[in-house]
């Protein structure tokens, strides 16, 4: 991968989602979700259902799927968190090319941060484990009560944009919530199809989403080489 990006590259600050964008965390998450469902007396989730549990706060996913009371939702969330942090958190893998991309952006003095629905302490631990934390100036995640929206989390990253204008900021993520939050905050969005969200969500209603199919295509997009970039 070349060391230099295009000199007049538009973006000076890039915000990354975590699950489904930087890391494939599906294995550990699904193990902890199925453990939680077993404790609660529910059947394991099917392959078709599993992606709907990755990305949003786990309390929201469990509550909506099984119509849980607030008390049961809190209990199941605590079961999940205990299992995930103690056993399954690090059962994840880097997407091909991520380290090379981050090295390239760092070399070119691009400011980077992470905005994730994952609880912030879990996100920091994961990034440290995979030796990614050093690339990011800001890491923001969900609060313990899972009350923050994705827009809240991304906005917390924008506090540190300094003199960078919003038209020089890009959000890269794999879900509809990433896209909608970007629109609310008036920043550009690039969607990745190799993650979780856009495999299940109806993106055809959003005519201005630009999608890439690999980490390599993120670099092509940043260098304005869009000959193979799909725009819906």
UniProtKB/TrEMBL annotation:
Organism domain of life: Bacteria
A Gene Ontology molecular function term of the record: protein tyrosine kinase activity
GO cellular component, one term: cytosol
Pfam families recorded: HAD_2 (PF13419)
Chain coiled-coil ranges: none
PANTHER family recorded: 5'-NUCLEOTIDASE (PTHR43434:SF20), PHOSPHOGLYCOLATE PHOSPHATASE (PTHR43434)
Name of the molecule in the record: HAD family hydrolase
Species of the source: Brachyspira aalborgi
């Amino acid at each position: 991968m070349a060391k230099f990006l295009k000199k007049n590259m538009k973006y000076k600050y890039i915000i990354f989602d975590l699950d489904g964008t930087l890391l494939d965390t599906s294995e550990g998450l699904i193990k902890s979700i199925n453990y939680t469902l077993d404790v609660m007396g529910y059947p394991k989730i099917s392959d078709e259902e599993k992606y709907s549990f990755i990305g949003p706060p786990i309390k929201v996913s469990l509550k909506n799927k099984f119509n849980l009371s607030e008390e049961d939702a809190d209990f199941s969330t605590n079961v999940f968190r205990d299992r995930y942090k103690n056993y399954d958190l690090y059962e994840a893998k880097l997407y091909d090319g991520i380290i090379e991309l981050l090295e390239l952006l760092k070399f070119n003095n691009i400011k980077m941060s992470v905005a994730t629905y994952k609880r912030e302490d879990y996100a920091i631990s994961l990034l440290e484990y995979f030796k990614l934390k050093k690339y990011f100036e800001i890491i923001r995640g969900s609060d313990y009560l899972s009350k923050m929206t994705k827009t809240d989390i991304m906005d917390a990253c924008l506090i540190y944009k300094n003199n960078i204008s919003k038209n020089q900021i890009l959000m890269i993520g794999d879900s509809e919530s990433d896209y909608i939050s970007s629109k609310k905050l008036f920043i550009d969005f690039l969607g990745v199809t190799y993650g979780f969200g856009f495999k299940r969500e109806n993106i055809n209603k959003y005519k201005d989403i630009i999608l890439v199919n690999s980490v390599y295509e993120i670099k092509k997009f940043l260098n304005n080489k869009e000959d193979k970039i799909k725009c819906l």
